[in-house]
Design a protein that fits this description.
It is a single chain. The two termini are 29 Å apart. This protein folds into 2 domains: 284 residues, Alpha-Beta Barrel (TIM Barrel), CATH 3.20.20.70; 132 residues, GI Alpha 1, domain 2-like. The chain is built from 16 helices and 10 strands. The strands form 2 sheets. An 8-stranded parallel beta barrel has the order 1-2-3-4-5-6-9-10, surrounded by 9 helices. The longest helix has 22 residues. It is an alpha/beta fold and 433 residues long.
């Protein structure tokens, strides 16, 4: 079987400007859009679930790794994507969801998660033990402690993989202690760039920890390290990539025969910046909130079309999508309350339009799902004038006129999400129009 992840990264290390973009989302429409684009451009579909999104306790999606893996394979199959082109990974696998517990208990939970991921067919594992747990005596976890815990998780993964039947790809690992917070930053943006010295220390202490655990062969399958290249986004701001500031970090990894960098929080970077990141050896680009942000943009556009087209029709029941989503977010504020501060009107604006896109946690709510279905049913009953589509979704209007996409509202939503993904695909060396 062709190991698409490993072959791509080896090609990058040989000097080709190629990379992989990773979908960090469990949203079914996002995954469908990504799968359909992968079929169209001949790219692999690399999807990663985060530890708080999908875990053995269900996470905030209610899915275990086995359930998520089955869902992804079904979506890929329905899109016509061959199973061998699907790469399933775990992001921030570690104690983060259980950080309020003592370290021993949190790590026990993290070990259970890693085992569940491997048994479900995950083959790319980002082991992230950088978080401070309840009884840790440090404000920031020392690299040596994080490395020891990383090796502990790796040992669990290796044992679990040994119970699987042959014919599966080997496990590949991503390490690194300078990782952004899952879900994005709160408030001010962290713009610090990892120094080459810190990167070298992380590699050294992690390799030593692996050796102490008898994981030398596993160390040979560590393919990437998470570092901070100076890209980040927050509620209302994006910090763009500045190649000059990351020059020393970029040059450092060139001397390593195997490792590349994995860049998190690349959401909302301009296409030229994404391409430059790959050129600078950030060969794995992670994207998540920007994709559900695009989904939200497209759905809002359809809701505005619905209002303009059907709002004055007597007896017509509109979807009331805006109010329904707002009510769901207000009824259960735990996913946004720590992110959206300020006056009441500022928080209301952020709930709709923030880069952090905390609304992504609410699309699965039954009332919101019902409103979405109602929206598509309403729009399916009428012919939408091109003038309205041009007003609210001008790019999809153009692509419809050119015959590139279908004439159904869901086609336009898919295409709007793919517009984000096409920038990533081009940055990674795929021909995407």
């Amino acid at each position: 079987m062709n190991d698409l992840l490993l072959s791509t990264l080896r090609e990058h290390k040989r000097g080709s400007t190629v990379g992989l973009y990773s979908i960090c989302s469990a949203h079914t429409t996002v995954l469908e859009a990504a799968a359909r684009l992968a079929v169209k451009i001949g790219a692999p579909l690399l999807v990663e679930s985060t530890s708080n999104q999908v875990n053995q306790e269900g996470g905030y999606t209610g899915m275990t790794p086995a359930v998520f893996a089955a869902q992804l394979r079904l979506i890929a199959s329905q899109a016509g994507l061959a199973e061998e082109r699907v790469i399933l990974g775990g992001d921030h696998l570690g104690p983060y969801p259980w950080r309020t517990l003592p370290a021993s208990q949190a790590m026990e939970k993290a070990c259970e998660l890693v085992e569940a991921c491997v048994l479900a067919g995950y083959t790319k594992l980002h082991l992230d033990t950088s978080i401070v747990c309840a009884d840790d005596p440090w404000e920031a976890l020392p690299k040596e402690v994080a490395a020891q815990r990383t090796a502990q998780l790796c040992a669990v993964a290796e044992r679990a993989f040994g119970h699987l039947s042959s014919g599966r790809h080997a496990l590949h690992y991503v390490i690194g202690t300078e990782v952004p917070r899952p879900g994005g930053e709160m408030g001010a943006i962290a713009e610090d760039i990892t120094s080459p010295e810190d990167a070298a220390e992380t590699i050294s202490v992690t390799r030593q920890a692996f050796a102490r655990h008898g994981l030398d062969t596993a160390w040979e399958r560590v393919v990437a390290m998470v570092v901070q290249p100076g890209v980040e986004f927050s509620d209302n701001n994006v910090h763009d990539y500045e190649p000059v500031r990351a020059k020393a970090l970029s040059r450092f990894i060139e001397d390593d025969p195997r490792l590349v960098y994995e860049a998190h929080s690349t959401d909302y970077q301009l296409p030229a910046s994404l391409r430059r990141l790959v050129e600078d050896h950030f060969a794995i680009l992670k994207v998540g909130p920007a994709l559900t942000f695009a989904f939200r943009e497209a759905i809002f556009a359809l809701a505005w079309i619905e209002k303009e087209l059907l709002g004055d029709h007597p007896g017509m029941s509109l979807s009331n999508l805006f109010a329904t989503l707002e009510q769901a977010m207000l009824a259960n504020p735990k996913f946004w309350v720590d992110y959206y501060r300020g006056e009441q009107n500022q928080a209301a604006f952020a709930r709709r339009f923030s880069y952090s896109d905390r609304s992504r946690y609410y699309w699965g709510e039954p009332a919101v799902q019902s409103s979405l279905s109602h929206l598509f049913e309403n729009l399916g009953r009428v012919k939408i004038p091109g003038t309205l589509l041009s007003q609210f979704m001008p790019e999809q209007y153009r692509r419809l006129r050119e015959g590139r996409i279908g004439n159904q509202p869901k086609d336009w939503v898919i295409d709007h999400i793919q517009a984000v993904l096409r920038g990533y695909a081009r940055a990674c060396g795929y021909d995407s129009q």
